[in-house]
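Kindly review this protein for my students:
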Amino acid sequence: MTIPHLSYDVYSSSLSQQKSFIQTNNYNNIIFEFTAFDISNQFAVLPAFSLNSNNGFNRVNAIAKIFIEKSRLNNLFYFKGYPYDDSNMELEQLPEMYGINMSHEFSIAYSNASVTSGAVNSTNNPKLKADYVNYLAYAITGGYNLANIFKNEGELLNEVTNMDSRFNTIINTNIANINNNFSTVNSSIVTINGNNIFFDDYNNNSIYINSCKELLNGLLTIADTPRGEVFFDDLENQSNANNNKNESYYAINFSQGDILSIVLNYIPSNGNMRPIIGLGDNLVYTRSYKILLECV
């Protein structure tokens, strides 16, 4: 498995990626594109003019970054395995099962993410909510890219903010329903620290289990790097805390500087590739943002 290496600056300006698991150039961190989270939601407010008139994600329109506590991403991914040999930092056997925490809940203000690439009219990293309303102005007029063209600019900005909770609800509902949508004869739900973890083996081809496999395989591939050492130190700590030394459940935890990326698609109020009624004939398209959740 070949692991690509990118700097933060290069990654945060690249609108498409060929690989979902990426290592930073300094070997201290990882970037993981959780391709199961490619979520769409429809904008609910109509703009009104003022009187002045194994792959990563496919290409997106823009990239935005927001900092979050690493604890908010920990305990999302799991695997069931055997103790590892800490003398050469290898798992003694391949994992038996891969898991996703069905109880995990996202509660993130995506609208406050700073746009790092693809902004409509600014190089100063505008907030996502401002960039999206600027995009509406650009798409509707065919060139003017400032939100002050709308008499209801404040309402439009508030609607982008309101979409945060709707995106979170969609994500959380999808996670909670993994068992209903992707279970096989080998699936199981295990309660760990009060959370329900959906486990299945390598043959489950759902995007959730495949994402967990890709993340774990990537970390195992970089075992001899500083970030790989942090990963195995964490496994050792979890193993020592587990009373069953023959086989154990492990969480795949994130470190400061790691990035988990998701994609959010903002569908215009009238639907994709349609004009806004009453505001001309120019087509308005769904705008996609890759959201970089950088751990602090």
